[in-house]
């Protein structure tokens, strides 16, 4: 029996790697004619990648068909402010060599290289696929709505000759095919509105998605029916809604940290706790921390707050650190006044917390993985986006799908350090938390909508479900490459 080998290439960073590996594992479970090799680009300060891959590799049932190859580490000190694309570009020779070796070695096995599956930031490697006459696919780790917005912005710039920077701080709204309502320019990814080369590199990267043979999107039809309907009638490659792709297995690295948290959560009433967590890159300066603390205290709601310290450097590679003492940043006496009501922690095992029955609300940065996790566990969100595509995710949840409350949907954290941080006031945060945790009469029933979507997210992955069928269609396309 011939096997089709796919080469997955995620972009640097743990969140994209986890989504990629979970996608790979799901495809392998679906069809034993597949094998997958994952090429890993590691950042020097992202120390958890090795422990994650070692944990996966310790399972012999998985490693029969899934293997990891670490690409050579690059000297990040010489990389420019366009470092993400610089890192990716610097690996093209290494990727070419590995793919070449895989093709040479396939004559010694029953496996045939059937294509590349590229992260949405890694479309540069389509050049390698073209060299070896291999089809390239894209795994888009965000929403179908985000994919549609990026395609729309690319069209504005390259087909209609708009200078996108003119819309910075603009109140303009646009009809975007993947949304049923106009999308404000303030919801666009901030990188699009910056000066310099990075916005052009960003759009050029996403523009190449049109050249792919297919696009797997980490969503499911029932969550984004309007967006998926729009993708179905455009001239882009076929879009496969294959999600939700989540890391639902036990994370061994998190168990020790979770024990103390779980003990506290076990003592709280059902759906009584609001959980605040802002992703692997999320942190706030002292002024914003104090406003959040005041909002929590005034709301009177039980809370679990993952509070992390901004890294020492600006930019994408500035990973948050842990506080040695939370009192150095929190209002004086806050911990004493909220003792028994709330708990402040550092890094949080987010999946385990969201799955706990005492958690009734989630104040989130709206990273797409976090959105899917909140839906999977039926926990309604309050949106507090920071960077990347999180603003459009927040807009989609609050305005398009009406599945979340808004702290603010157009908040932007300046990750590149060019402007002083915006501050969201305590009253605004408190009001959102109150709406989230106790719905008012006459409201649209956010909690009920999320609960309904929780059931649909699980049905999508079952045999005969929308995502199950989309996965099978993708696999059939891949297997035709070796027939």
From TrEMBL:
Q: Which domain of life is it from?
A: Eukaryota
What's the protein here called?
Answer: Glycosyltransferase
> Which source organism does the UniProt entry give?
Buddleja alternifolia
> Carries keyword Glycosyltransferase?
yes
Q: What keywords are assigned to this protein?
A: Glycosyltransferase, Transferase
Q: Supply the EC number(s).
A: 2.4.1.-
Per the UniProt entry, the signal peptide is: none
- Family listed: Belongs to the UDP-glycosyltransferase family.
Any GO MF annotation of the entry: UDP-glucosyltransferase activity
Q: Does the keyword RNA-binding apply?
A: no
